[in-house]
Amino acid sequence: MSAEKMEKYDSGRVCPHCGRPIYCYDIPFFEIPVAITCQCILDQDAATEKQREAVKKQRRIEELTAKSQMPPRLRACTFDVFQRREGTEKAMDTCRTYADRFPEMREKGLGLILVGNTGSGKTHLAAAIVNSVIQQCYSAVFYKAAKLFDFAAENHAALPDGCERSSLLVLDDFGASNDTESRKATLQKILDYRIDGMRPTILTTNIPPKEWASRLDVRTVDRLMDKSLFRVISITAPSMRQERRRSE
Ligand SMILES: [Zn+2]
Question: Which residues crowd ion ligand 1, with CB under 5 Å?
Answer without folding.
Answer: 15, 17-18, 20, 38, 40
